């Protein structure tokens, strides 16, 4: 007696038929069965037999694995991740029910996923409005904030781009492979030209001459990334635009910033393919320098890529990332670890990311404790852009990469320093205006909602004195 479970694929069969633009009668004729039998299959009143799977694959030139395989594993993982949101904490949803919804109602599943993503974007926008103190009727929108909301609502993860890049990465490896791909597929040669010829461009596509031009002063990692970025624009424009279409943008600049972020994402995914990079990250215990050497990328590119490893069903350590200049201006910020970044204004000066300019290119580790008691572990280091020739302008920035306390034990940085424990955490705040640690001597502004005391009789060591009320 067979123990095999009957296979019901009604919704998937219906979607296939509609994607092909067929009626039930058309499909019945193609498969040499009755239209009523097609209707029974689509309503899951009859199982899909092996013979029928073969007919579908043969008649419509379909990949058997994609047709008969689990096809919904990734969607199931996405729905399960959605259901982990705290607002659903009081609802007990067994995993089997989630699988049944994905398998039986793929259209409804997609609706739920899109609605939740839109909800996350709205929540982030409301947080921005509250932080700025803007009136709801104020239509002025910060394009940078728009792009950041778009990425944050999706946890900076775009599986479609990862899959497309991973497929190409099988045949394209290293800078020489990228150059060969550009020549073979797009009839484009690569030339490196002096800075004075390139003007203000690092990379330029010259379609008239059939060339991709690169600034000769770029280091190897930057040249390779620029070639991968050009391939992303040429090969995956449709995928980038499809991902972008899921967002909502009030300004064209916000949309273009998000589009640029997606292109850079695809380029990084080509140089550091998801499966291989995630496996190496785990094996190397998230040693950023070692991973950068292994994949021929820069320290910053590698740290940035680590924030994207949240593909449903294949998640790695969730990281947050921030890049600042010596003046404290934030030029890049990505959150996949639940770190409450200050959306406006500066960050806490006690965080080591603001101090590593004193020790260039050295990794500084630090435990952080927020006012609510939550703890995070971060590494910080300076990175350099520009240069490459005598007299060329160099820009020094600092980046920090971190994760929540429960994941820190998986990092080489904590494993190699047993004495570095959460008990050594530095108390920091999100931003001075939201931090109520009244004794902090590094404070630059009083917290919202606290009355200041006069200092005519007493001057505290902290910059501001506050009442207890």
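-> sequence recovered:
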């Amino acid at each position: 007696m067979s123990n095999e479970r009957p296979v019901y694929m009604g919704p998937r069969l219906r979607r296939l038929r509609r994607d092909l633009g067929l009626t039930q009668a058309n499909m019945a004729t193609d498969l040499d069965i009755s239209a009523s039998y097609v209707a029974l299959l689509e309503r899951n009143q009859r199982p899909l037999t092996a013979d029928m799977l073969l007919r579908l694959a043969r008649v419509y030139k379909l990949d058997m694995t994609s047709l008969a395989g689990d096809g919904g594993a990734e969607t199931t993982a996405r729905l399960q991740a959605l259901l982990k949101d705290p607002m659903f904490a009081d609802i007990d949803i067994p995993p089997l029910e989630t699988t049944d919804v994905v398998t039986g109602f793929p259209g409804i599943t997609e609706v739920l996923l899109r609605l939740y993503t839109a909800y996350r974007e709205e929540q982030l926008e409301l947080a921005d409005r509250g932080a700025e103190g803007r009136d709801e009727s104020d239509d002025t929108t910060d394009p940078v904030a728009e792009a950041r909301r778009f990425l944050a609502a999706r946890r900076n993860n775009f599986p479609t781009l990862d899959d497309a890049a991973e497929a190409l990465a099988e045949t394209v490896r290293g800078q020489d492979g990228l150059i060969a791909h550009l020549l073979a597929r797009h009839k484009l040669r690569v030339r490196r030209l002096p800075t004075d010829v390139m003007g203000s461009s690092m990379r330029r596509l010259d379609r008239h001459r059939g060339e991709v031009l690169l600034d000769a002063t770029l280091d190897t990692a930057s040249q390779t990334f620029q070639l991968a970025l050009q391939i992303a624009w040429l090969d995956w424009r449709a995928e980038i635009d499809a991902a972008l279409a899921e967002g909502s943008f009030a300004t064209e600049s916000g949309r273009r910033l998000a589009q640029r972020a997606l292109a850079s994402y695809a380029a990084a995914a080509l140089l550091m393919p998801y499966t291989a990079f995630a496996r190496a990250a785990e094996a190397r215990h998230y040693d950023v320098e070692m991973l950068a050497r292994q994949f021929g990328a820069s320290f910053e590119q590698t740290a940035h890529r680590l924030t994207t490893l949240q593909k449903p069903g294949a998640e790695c350590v969730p990281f947050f990332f921030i890049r600042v200049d010596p003046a404290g201006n934030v030029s890049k910020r990505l959150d996949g670890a639940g770190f409450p970044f200050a959306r406006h204004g500066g960050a806490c000066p006690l965080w080591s990311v603001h101090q590593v300019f004193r020790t260039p290119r050295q990794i500084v580790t630090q435990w952080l404790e927020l006012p609510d008691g939550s703890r995070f572990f971060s590494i910080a280091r300076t990175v350099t852009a520009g240069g490459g020739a005598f007299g060329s302008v160099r820009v020094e920035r600092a980046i920090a990469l971190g994760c929540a306390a429960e994941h820190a034990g998986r990092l080489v940085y904590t494993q190699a320093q047993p004495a570095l424990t959460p008990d050594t955490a530095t108390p920091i705040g999100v931003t001075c205006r939201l931090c109520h640690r009244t004794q902090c001597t590094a404070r630059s502004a009083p917290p919202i909602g606290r009355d200041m005391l006069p200092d005519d009789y007493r001057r505290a060591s902290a910059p501001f004195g506050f009442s207890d009320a």
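The longest helix spans residues 106-132.
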